[in-house]
Each structure stands twice: as structure tokens, then as C-alpha cells.
Write a structure and sequence with these properties.
Elements lengths: L3 E6 H9 L1 H9 L2 E2 L5 H21 L4 H19 L4 H17 L1 H5 L3 E14 L3 E13 L7 E8 L10 H10 L3 E8 L6 H4 E7 L2 H24 L10 E2 L2 E2 L3 H4 L4 H11 L1 E2 L5 H4 L3 H19 L1
Parallel strand pairs: 1-4, 5-6
Antiparallel strand pairs: 2-10, 3-4, 4-5, 6-7, 8-9
């Protein structure tokens, strides 16, 4: 009998863990909200700027050229790929300009191995299933102490404690065979000083922690296969309100009967293309290039 192949990234995995029905709505039925949260657009701009900046540093450019190019990318992307108000875009530019300056000396001394590095690896294989995990690491660095150490950019509004239990972080470490990772915090607070909002938090995971994480992922994936086989996606009511944010599918799940749920799902959400691992692995700059081509095509079609 042919083996079942599972491919997931940690965004999918985390959503499945939060609520199987939410996962079903998003990744099986391909239903999503009609608008993106502003934080998603802002985060995209931050990652695009960082990709441009660190890629140029990696290739030997100086700080001035790299920072100017990165800020220009924000302006370009804001026009073509987001619906953010000008004042929000200007705030992103101000924050990133200050961020680049704050880490100016340290960043120019980094030995950058890769930027926006995609990966897809086989986590587990047995007689029934192959489990592949995918992702994209913002930066990988190496020095005489740490080899292939991942760094993950996180923009934020409120100070919080970094979650060492993050599946994303453990996945990065497992993929790079590193026991260490840096979380690069980029704060948007207006009242904090640079050293308070631009922080790099080191995390470490010993082999026992990573192995325990792997075994847990395998068990969850077998539960995922059961959901597929039975076409049954349990509702996790404890996840309807998480982190002071109500699930986008709350009104759908709160409906009485299958017909009412079907109506709300189709009335309040749009159908998007199925999840594609190749798109997840693309760099932010590649997504921007597509947006530019699409914009040009729309302009030509309207003439």
C-alpha cells in the first residue's frame, strides 16, 4: 500500500492544534476573511525590508546603501501590495530606519549564511506515512561558536515574553540541526527607548527537547490523518476566543444546523486558492515582484 505523504508548515500545524474545525474551514474549504489584519500587512513590510537589508549586507554592501534600499522597498511594496494608510507606512519606515541604525555595528559583523531561507525536510517515515515539514527562516548566521543559527524577526506592539515552546522555533532548529536560535524583536512602541524595543532574545533547545517535540508532532499528525479519514473536524470551543481575539469563524460555528453554517461560510468569506507549499517557501521580494507584474497587467488591460 502506498504511503501517505503529509506536508505542513507551522502556521497550519498551530491552527490544527488550536481547532480542527478552524483548520478545516481555512485549509480544506479554503475559506478566508475578505480583508487582512493590518498587522499582517505591516509584518510583510518589515520582513521585506529585512530581507533587502540583510541580503545586501550578505553580498558585501555597506550600511548606507543597504538601509536606503530597504526603506525604498517598503515604500514600493506599500503602494502595490497593501491597503495601509500613509501614516502607518510612514511609521513602519521610521521604525525600520531606527532599527537598522540601532543594530548597525552588530549587523555589519554578522556572518550571514542565508536570508529568507526556505526548507522542506522529512521529519518522520514509517510503514504508513511520511511527514514533511516546511518553513522559511529569516536569517541563518554562523560564527566560531554557533553554526547555522536561525534568527526570526518578530514585530510587535506590546512587550511580551518570548514563547520558548513555539513550534515554529523548534521546527527551525530541527531543520538547521541547530540547538540555538535568536528571536529578533522589532517594537513599534512610541514611548520606549531603542534598547527596550529592539531586542534579540537567545533561545536554546537540547536534543531531548527537540526529540520530544518531534514525537509530539508525529502523534498530532496521526490525529490529523484520522480527521481526514473520517471527514470529521472536532470543534475546540476553548479556542473561540484566544489572546483577546475572537476566531474569524465564530459566527459560522455558532450557527444552528449545517445549512446555516454553509450559508454564513459562503456569505461572509471568500474562497482562495488551495494552500501551496511552494508559495509558502517564496521570499517576500518574489511576492512583491509578482504584485508588480500583476499591477502592470491591470494597467495594460485598462488601456
Amino acid at each position: 500500500m502506498a504511503k501517505v505523504n503529509i506536508v505542513m508548515d507551522m502556521s497550519q500545524f498551530d491552527m490544527f492544534r488550536l481547532c480542527e474545525e478552524r483548520f478545516n474551514n481555512r485549509y480544506n474549504l479554503n475559506k478566508t476573511a475578505t480583508t487582512k489584519a493590518p498587522q499582517l500587512d505591516r509584518g510583510t513590510l518589515v520582513h521585506l525590508a529585512c530581507e533587502t537589508y540583510y541580503e545586501m549586507l550578505k553580498d558585501g554592501s555597506n550600511y548606507q546603501d543597504a538601509s536606503v534600499a530597504a526603506l525604498s522597498k517598503i515604500r514600493q511594496a506599500a503602494v502595490l501590495t497593501t491597503d495601509l494608510e500613509p501614516e502607518v507606512v510612514n511609521r513602519v519606515i521610521d521604525v525600520m530606519e531606527e532599527y537598522f541604525d540601532y543594530w548597525r555595528v552588530a549587523d555589519q559583523n554578522l556572518h550571514i549564511v542565508a536570508v529568507e531561507n526556505p526548507f522542506l525536510y522529512l521529519l518522520h517515515e514509517d510503514d504508513e506515512v511520511r511527514i514533511h515539514l516546511a518553513g522559511k527562516i529569516d536569517i541563518i548566521t554562523s560564527d566560531n561558536k554557533y553554526e547555522n543559527k536561525p534568527m526570526d524577526h518578530k514585530s510587535y506592539d506590546r512587550t511580551y515574553e518570548v514563547n520558548r515552546m513555539s513550534n515554529q522555533f523548534k521546527n527551525y532548529c530541527y531543520a538547521t540541526k541547530s540547538n540555538y536560535l535568536d528571536v529578533n524583536l522589532i517594537g513599534f512602541q512610541k514611548t520606549l527607548k531603542p534598547h527596550e524595543k529592539y531586542r534579540r532574545v537567545p533561545l536554546s533547545y537540547d536534543p531531548y527537547i527537540l526529540e520530544a517535540w518531534k514525537q509530539n508532532v508525529i502523534k498530532v499528525m496521526y490525529h490529523y490523518l484520522t480527521c481526514i479519514a473520517e471527514n470529521s473536524w472536532p470543534l475546540n470551543e476553548t479556542s473561540c476566543d484566544k489572546y483577546n481575539r475572537r476566531c474569524e469563524y465564530f459566527n459560522v460555528c455558532d450557527s444552528s444546523g449545517a445549512e446555516a453554517k454553509f450559508y454564513k461560510l459562503n456569505a461572509d468569506f471568500i474562497t482562495v486558492e488551495p494552500w501551496d507549499v511552494s508559495k509558502v517557501l517564496r521570499k517576500a521580494s518574489e511576492v512583491l515582484d509578482d504584485a508588480i507584474r500583476e499591477k502592470e497587467k491591470e494597467t495594460q488591460d485598462s488601456v
